[in-house]
């Protein structure tokens, strides 16, 4: 599931770049609750995350131990 999230983020960033955004995306923030936090962590550890990891700014965890 983390790989699918990473692919979705990459696809969305591609759409934004193809749309000719005047201001490039500066930062990405992720918010996860419970299982969503685990999925987000897996996405950030995925090989596809190298495409957007430099823009990852913050990850908030709700309802799961650090």
Which stretches are poorly predicted, pLDDT < 50 over at least 5 residues?
none
Would you report the number of β strands? 2
In terms of DSSP E residues, the strand content is 15-25%
Order of helices and strands: HEHE
**Gyration radius, in Å:** 12 Å
Spatially, the strands of the biggest sheet line up as 1-2
Question: Largest sheet at a glance?
Answer: 2 strands, parallel
Mean pLDDT: 78
Shape: globular
Number of helices: 2
Fraction of helical residues:
40-55%
> Which structural class do you get from the secondary structure elements?
alpha+beta
Termini Cα gap: 20 Å
Describe this structure in words.
There is one protein chain. The chain is α+β, with helices and mostly antiparallel strands and 66 residues long. Helix content is 42%, strand content 20%. It has helices spanning 2-18, 35-45; strands spanning 28-33, 56-62. The protein has a two-stranded parallel sheet. Helix 1 (2-18) packs across helix 2. The longest helix is centred in the first third of the chain and has 17 residues, at 2-18. The protein is globular and about 35 Å long. The protein starts with a helix and ends with a strand. The model has no long low-confidence stretch (mean pLDDT 78).
Q: What's the short version?
A:
42% of the residues lie in helices and 20% in strands. The protein has helices at 2-18, 35-45; strands at residues 28-33, 56-62.
SSE layout:
Layout: H1 2-18, E1 28-33, H2 35-45, E2 56-62
Helix pairs in contact: 1-2
Identify the notable features of this structure and list them briefly.
alpha+beta, 2 helices, two-stranded parallel sheet, 66 residues
């Amino acid at each position: 599931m983390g790989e699918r999230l990473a692919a979705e983020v990459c696809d969305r960033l591609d759409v934004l770049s193809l749309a000719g955004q005047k201001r490039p995306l500066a930062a990405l923030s992720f918010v996860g609750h419970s299982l969503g936090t685990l999925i987000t962590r897996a996405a950030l550890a995925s090989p596809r995350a190298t495409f957007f990891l430099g823009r990852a700014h913050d990850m908030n965890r709700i309802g799961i131990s650090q």
